[in-house]
Amino acid sequence: MSEIAHLGPVELLTPKFDASLAFFTDVMGLEIHAQEGDSTYLRGWGDYQRWSLKLTASDRSGMGVLGIRAWSPEALERRVAAIAATGLGGGWTDGDLGRGPSYRFRDPDGHVFEIYYECERYVAPPGLEPALKNIPGRNLGRGIACKRLDHINILAADVRANREFCTDALGYRLYERIELDDGVEAGAWMSASIAAHELIYTHDARDAHGRLHHLAFWVDTREECLRAADLWLDAGVEIEAAPSKHAIAAGFFLYGIEPGGNRIEVTTGGRFVYAPDEPVVVWTEADRKKGQAWGVKTVESFHTYGTPPVD
Ligand code: FE
């Protein structure tokens, strides 16, 4: 087993806080769990932790702190030692709402992470209990009613260096990657679980550092993804890429831009990796020219836009 259990929660920064909050609650269907200072803590009905998204008012867009949960207290200690040995360690913090001691560090590109083990599970308040006891929260069916946080794609000037940090120091499994004709690694799809992707790095076309490509929330069916596109359309959400299927990781997607400028995905599907010796899938430039799974060509902005935007 990986010493990392899974990805999240994630902090997202927005320069248009009220509009972003309305997007995540009314349109995406997340629930407000708590409010503290400039931040609102949100959750999907299927998130087992108290929150999966911390929306923070800021003068810029992009990612704040990316949380990752270790598998055990011992795994946390071992990963912290491995991170510290790379020289990228920051130090221990008190964690965040509902979460215990967390070790802050940066990846080689400068994104801020916190790794932790202790966290509180969500307990639904009276009136919001789910009918079944194996589901954390009640699905209120508002808007898209996203179930949970699924994955994140961050940008890096040097994908290979960051991928190697994640596999070597953090213990992520690498499932798929893009290698250009000149040998440069343009993307890496990693996971701590059998889900084909949790943590993705793709090349920052601006060669900037610490930027976000997109944050993805899960729905159970393709039909809900299609319905999400209809809801975004009527809500005036900028749709960047209409629903289709990715070639890499085989995930079904809908991409758009939330009011604060961050790219958000509604996702479902994707392959699961059961084999312990699963070979890493390497996609070439020729492969990528064929477009997404069903031949749809990827829109240009998908390769160039990230947050915060750079000139
Ligand atoms: Fe995605």
General form: globular
Residues in β-strands, percent: 35-45%
User: How many strands appear in the DSSP assignment?
Assistant: 17
Q: Hetero groups bound?
A: fe (iii) ion
Description:
By secondary structure, this protein is an alpha/beta fold. It has a single domain (4-135, 145-304), classed as 2,3-Dihydroxybiphenyl 1,2-Dioxygenase, domain 1. 19% of the residues lie in helices and 36% in strands. The strands form 2 sheets. It has a 9-stranded mixed beta sheet. Strands 2-3-4-1-5-8-7-6 form an 8-stranded mixed beta sheet, with helices on one face. Helix 2 packs across helix 3 (159-170). Bound molecules: fe (iii) ion. The site of fe (iii) ion (FE) has 8 residues, from strand 9, strand 13, strand 15 and strand 16.
Secondary structure: elements and pairs:
Layout: E1 4-14, H1 17-27, E2 31-36, E3 39-43, E4 53-57, E5 62-70, H2 73-86, E6 89-93, E7 102-106, E8 112-116, E9 148-156, H3 159-170, E10 173-179, E11 185-191, E12 199-203, E13 212-218, H4 222-235, E14 238-245, E15 251-257, E16 263-269, E17 281-283, H5 285-289, H6 301-304
Parallel strand pairs: 1-4, 5-8, 9-12, 10-17, 13-16
Antiparallel strand pairs: 1-5, 2-3, 3-4, 6-7, 7-8, 9-13, 10-11, 11-12, 14-15, 15-16
Bound molecules: fe (iii) ion.
